Amino acid sequence: MTATTSTRPTSEALFRDDEVRLDGRDKVSGKMRYTADFKPDELLWAAFTTSPHAHATIVRIDTTAAKAVPGVRAVLTSADIGPGKRSGRMLFDHPVLAYEKVIMVGDRVAAVAAETREAAEDAARLVEVTYEELPAVLDPLAALAPGAPRIHPERATYHYLGKTPPEVAHPNVQGCYQYHKGDENIEAVFARAPHVFEHRFRTSRQHAGYLEPKATVVWIDRDGTVHIQTPNKAPYNLQRFLAHVTGVPLEQIVIEPAAIGGDFGSKGWTTDEFPCYYLAKVTGRPVKRVSSYTNELQSNARKHAAYTTLQTAVDDDGRFLAHRSTVTYDGGAYAGGLPSPYLMPGATGYSTVPYTVPNVSIATQCVYTNTSPGTHVRAPGGSELYFAWEQHVDLMAAAVGIDPIELRRRNVVRDGQLMLTGDEVYHPMGTAVLERLEAEMQARPASPGRAWGMSFAVFHTGVGKTALDLTLQPDGTIEVLSGVPDQGAGNHTVVQRVIAATMSIAAERIRFRRGSTREARQDPGAGSSRVTHIVGRAAQAAAQELMARLTQATGMHVRDDRFVDDGGRSESFESGVARALGGTPLRVTGEYDGTHHGPGNPSDYSFFGYGIDVAVDRETGAFKIHDAVFVADVGAIINPVAHQGQIDGGFIFGLGTAAFEELVLDESGKVTNPSLADYKLPTIRDIPPFRTVLLEGRGLHGPFGAKMAGELSNTTVAAALLNAIANATGVRITELPVTAERIYDALQRS
């Protein structure tokens, strides 16, 4: 599927070689243990009674029949755990068990623990709940209409972790973000502009598509310590949230390490741990819950749908003079899955626009609806925004008669310029990416019904604060103890290779151990494209400290896995370590705070673009991708195989967003395609030829100049595909996913 061209300069010797994944052998052999594999002694299974209604008052709950099922050990409702118990990441609005009313299909009303999974599920079905249905709103625009039902009338009483919750203009708004730059009278700028363009777009609800359903195992020791196995990728945050909801002291909650079977953003938020804790507390036994895929697709957190309106003023030379946008996200029933203080997907999203615009007005909001909650899914907010922005740019280019690449080139951020949101960029390579993309697309001329389309964007290398420990043993091996999970991206292998390159030793000497929240130091978790940056730098700091200690003890330096001195004398690494340590292990800590703020502190951004070559059958609307090329500025590459895997996987993920995936609701709020047979993930048969061209500049902050890869390649596939379809057919599709039916209908209307 993939051909790769790289223009990167010679990097550290180790990084030129393909890596051996630390978890690779266990994964391919089946030895790796995921949460669903854990089976503690005396295990009970959990199941939940869930709401069949999108919005209803709970009149009565009768658990008598459920408790009579053989093997049932507990049946809990909100009355048993205490009403008002709500979870969240920033705003705690998600009830552990629903009380008074339900606000989406799949809301948990009761929790059951039983000796077998079958008994638990049978009992959950026998919980009798009497409802009085209420009017439901399934669309964010309808939720903002006059007279719309208030979904969270008690919102003002909910706990909020930030300083001040965002002020909202409507009771059904979860959160909002507004930004203004430049002329205060932006209306006058638009009025004076030679050209003003306005376009509207819509994206769909989408599941993250991981193949490991969410699961949890909870048990409580005799001393009251709570242990949790979970694929949550931000364990320290989960520990904190559990402490707040349950009242258990933070130090008595231990999130144990477990493998994560795919994430794609959405396993930063898991909620089954909360009711399972109460079941374990009542029964005194371990409790396990493994979600079904029907439940995953119906009621677990998903990607936000969005309505986007973009308006841009342009001069006769194609320069952007002003930009105004309005974005309304479908946040679903709860904002609990959003960690942003604005309660928005991906904070603002607009730091990902690669253009400089002097006058800007942005208004974005996330709205409650009676549907499954939205959460962060791979590049949250970015793919929704790119889908709109990059079609918007193509539409403007056609209207003013400027080549689409040239229009982008005239407006891309360059050295000394600020991005749309005022951010400073270290060594922007947008122009280089555009020039290479232009050359790659010219390699194959278009023909009738077939054309190239492109998209262009930028993504920020994530930030955060972390720490880890290195312990050098007298035999020359090094143990890394860190709390960072590996959600499939090769995070632990990155750490191993950074330490090996920093110390100039063989990577095989370094062993990685992910510790529990009791053992390892604080870490913000995998996500936001930050792990290589912040964990890599913490590993680098620890390795440098270790080397300084060894040099001080031996009077020698390490080079090519041996100790050497200025006189040319050398000895093996094992011998030098044994001499330096004297039989006692040496432990050091590496810390790093990657948060860079304020003027004069430019950040690392990766510029990237897609070219997609599409042929469309005008008789049916069916289309075929003949070629796809991805050009990106990626910084230094530490794990070559995993890096390419992230790009390949991102392309496939983006293709799913563009052309396959949509959670479809009926008028009652139920998902009509709640299985992988009906929810269409792309398979290997759907993947077209795909090429990558990597332009390796150097990052400012990451280890050895590394930037990011995880959220790089999925976000702009849809825009490039739809631009290509428009170029091939003359019709513009502004709604996802793009299907043959939608293309055919548009062709008929045209």
Question: Can you tell me about this structure?
Answer:
- With 750 residues, the protein is an alpha+beta fold.
- It folds into 4 domains: 195 residues, Aldehyde Oxidoreductase, domain 4 (2-Layer Sandwich); 177 residues, Aldehyde oxidase/xanthine dehydrogenase, a/b hammerhead (Aldehyde Oxidoreductase, domain 3), CATH 3.90.1170.50; 184 residues, Aldehyde oxidase/xanthine dehydrogenase, molybdopterin binding domain (Aldehyde Oxidoreductase, domain 4); 130 residues, Aldehyde Oxidoreductase, domain 4, CATH 3.30.365.10.
- Helices cover 26% and strands 25% of the residues.
- The protein has 18 helices and 29 strands.
- The strands form 7 sheets. A 7-stranded mixed beta sheet has the order 4-8-2-15-12-13-14, sandwiched between helices. A 5-stranded mixed beta sheet has the order 1-29-28-27-19, sandwiched between helices.
- The longest helix is centred in the last third of the chain and has 24 residues.
- The two termini are 35 Å apart.
- The relative contact order is 0.14.
State the main characteristics.
750 residues, alpha+beta, Aldehyde Oxidoreductase, domain 4, Aldehyde Oxidoreductase, domain 3, 4 domains, seven-stranded mixed β-sheet, five-stranded mixed β-sheet, 18 helices, 29 strands
Query: What count of helical segments does DSSP give?
Result: 18
Shape type = globular
Q: How many strands appear in the DSSP assignment?
A: 29
Average per-residue pLDDT, rounded, comes to 94
CATH topology of the largest domain: Aldehyde Oxidoreductase, domain 4
Radius of gyration: 27 Å
Alpha carbon gap, first and last residue: 35 Å
Return the structural class: alpha+beta
Low-confidence stretches: 5-11
Proportion of beta-strand residues: 15-25%
Total of domains: 4
> What spatial order of strands do you see in the largest sheet?
4-8-2-15-12-13-14
Largest sheet: 7 strands, mixed
User: Which homologous superfamily in CATH is the superfamily of the largest domain?
Assistant: Aldehyde oxidase/xanthine dehydrogenase, molybdopterin binding domain
* CATH top level class name of the largest domain: Alpha Beta
CATH architecture of the largest domain: 2-Layer Sandwich
Q: Helical residue percent? A: 25-40%
